[in-house]
Amino acid sequence: MALLDEQGIDGLTMRRLAERLGSGVTTLYWHVDTKDDVVDLALDAVFAHLQTPTGTPDPTRWREDIADLLHDWRAAMLRHPWSAALLQRPTLGPNLLARMEFLQATLVATGLSGTRLTAATWTLYNYVMGATVARASHDLSDEDREAAQRRLHELRDRYPTLSAHEYMLKDDWEAAFTAGLGYVLNGIAADTGPAAH
Known about the structure:
It is a single chain. By secondary structure, this protein is mainly α. It has helices spanning about 1-5, 15-20, 25-30, 35-45, 60-80, 95-110, 115-135, 140-155, 160-165, 175-190. The chain is built from ten helices and no strands. The longest helix has 24 residues, at about 115-135. The radius of gyration is 21 Å and the shape is flat. The mean pLDDT is about 85.
């Protein structure tokens, strides 16, 4: 994970990993079959330090439980920005699967099932992933943001709303994530059973 944090996925090679561990490359292959196995293990380790939700979901707390889960999920990925781009891998480890299990079980407790359950799960997954990738890759300096906003102001005839609302200067990522998650949860709430309201 430290090597990935420093050099990203492109910087991870079995040779570099062996050097970091003070080992030979051949020795690594006693423990893993491929570099993909190393990536899968590192990806799951991103979530290892988070407390895994357990127990039967409480349908009266579903919004709070999902919000807590996704805030922790996002924070873990932002500590290791390379991880967000890798969660589309076919092999998900037990730490992430435990979170996905809790997410779906919580949604089931609200009364969702079938295609509604699938849609709600993917909507929440896509929201946290998209917000995390956007935050990790959009780290502009104050000067760059101000220059971009000046450009929008110069083009205000074409982009009046973006210019008037200082789109490029708004960078409270945490507040935007929380508010956006509230919008998503409101949409899901409109489609859940009465016990979940």
